[in-house]
Design a protein that fits this description.
22% strand; transport; single chain; Rossmann fold; P-loop_NTPase; four-stranded antiparallel β-sheet; 276 residues; binds adenosine-5'-triphosphate; ATP binding; six-stranded mixed β-sheet; cell membrane
C-alpha cells in the first residue's frame, strides 16, 4: 500500500509559468507569472502579497486546478495534481453566492453536488451557519443580507466540506474595516481549531502579517515571481486589531514594505498607463 507522504507540502507550486494571449493586444502573448515556486506546509498559513494585477489570482487558480500552467507542476500532499484540486476549498474575491438560493442552501450547495444525504447536509449546514455567527439567518436570500453576512455565508460554504487546503483570494477586500477585522479574527479562530493549510491572497500587508505564519512578496508583472519571504514570528493566538501595535509587527511591516514598495509603485504606474 502507498505510504502517505507526511513530509510533503500540502500544496507545492513548482517552477510555474503562466503565459496568456494578451488582453490588450490579442496578437501578443503576456507572461503573467514566471518560474514561481511556492509551498504551503500542512497546517501552515501563508499569505501572498503583491501589487495589483501582478498575478496573485493566477497562482491561486493554478493551485485550485482551475488553470493549467504553461510550464511547471503542482503537487498536492506529494501527488501530482490532475484536474480540479479536490483537497482544496476556494473562497473567491467577489460575490459567489447563488442569488436564488437561501443562505442555508448556498452553504450546503457543495454537499448537495457531492451527493451527501439531504438531511445530513441540512444539519451540517445549520451547524456551520451557527459557527460563522449566522444562526437564525438560514432562510435569508443573499440580497437580504449585508456584505459581511454574505462573506460569512461564503466562508461556511467553503469550510463545510472540511478541505485540507483553503485557498482565499482577497476574501474580505470589499468589507468595511471593522467588519473585516471581525471576520479576520473569526477565520483565525477557525484555523487555530483545525490547522488546515491556507494560501491567502491579499494586497493588504497589515492583513497578511496579522494572519500568517509566512508572507511571500511577489514582484510587479510581467513575469511576476517571488522576491521575498518573511517568517511571521509573532505568537498566537493573535487579535488582528491589537497585533498591529506590537513592536515586532511594526518591524516586520517595515522590512516587508521595503521590498514591496517599489513593486507597488511599478504596478501602479502600469495601471495608470493602461487607463491613460
Ligand atoms: N485568462 C487571461 N487572459 C489574459 N490575461 C490574463 C488572464 N488572466 C490573467 N491575465 C493577466 O495576468 C495578469 C495577472 O492577473 P491576476 O488576476 O492574476 O492578478 P492579481 O494580482 O490577482 O490582480 P488583483 O490584485 O487586481 O486582484 C494581469 O495582467 C491580467 O490581465
Amino acid at each position: 500500500m502507498a505510504q502517505a507522504n507526511t513530509e510533503a507540502p500540502a500544496l507545492a507550486l513548482k517552477d510555474i509559468t503562466c503565459t496568456f494571449i494578451s488582453r490588450d493586444d490579442p496578437g501578443q502573448r503576456y507572461t503573467a507569472v514566471a518560474d514561481t515556486t511556492l509551498e504551503v506546509k500542512p497546517g501552515e498559513f501563508v499569505s501572498v502579497v503583491g501589487p495589483t494585477g501582478c498575478g496573485k489570482s493566477t497562482l491561486l487558480n493554478v493551485g485550485a486546478g482551475l488553470l493549467t500552467p504553461s510550464k511547471g507542476a503542482v503537487e498536492v500532499f506529494g501527488q501530482p495534481l490532475q484536474g480540479i484540486n479536490q483537497r482544496a476549498g476556494y473562497m473567491f474575491q467577489g460575490e459567489a453566492l447563488l442569488p436564488w438560493r437561501k443562505a442555508l442552501d448556498n452553504v450546503t450547495a457543495g454537499l448537495q453536488f457531492a451527493g451527501v444525504d439531504p438531511k445530513e447536509a441540512d444539519e451540517r449546514g445549520r451547524e456551520w451557519m451557527r459557527r460563522v455567527g449566522l444562526g437564525g439567518f438560514e432562510d435569508r436570500y443573499p440580497h437580504q443580507m449585508s456584505g459581511g453576512m454574505r462573506k460569512r455565508t461564503m466562508l461556511a460554504q467553503t469550510l463545510i466540506r472540511d478541505p485540507d487546503i483553503i485557498l482565499m483570494d482577497e476574501p474580505f477586500s470589499a468589507l468595511d474595516i471593522q467588519t473585516r477585522q471581525l471576520m479576520e479574527n473569526e477565520v483565525l479562530d477557525l484555523w487555530m481549531a483545525k490547522r488546515k493549510a491556507v494560501l491567502f491572497i491579499t494586497h493588504d500587508l497589515d492583513e497578511a502579517i496579522a494572519m500568517s505564519d509566512r508572507v511571500v512578496v511577489l514582484s510587479a508583472g510581467p513575469a511576476t515571481h517571488p522576491i521575498g519571504e518573511f517568517l511571521i514570528d509573532i505568537p498566537r493566538p493573535r487579535d488582528v486589531a491589537e497585533v498591529r501595535s506590537i513592536p515586532r509587527f511594526v518591524e516586520l511591516h517595515t522590512d516587508i514594505w521595503a521590498v514591496l514598495r517599489d513593486e507597488v509603485l511599478k504596478g501602479y504606474a502600469q495601471q495608470k498607463t493602461k487607463v491613460a
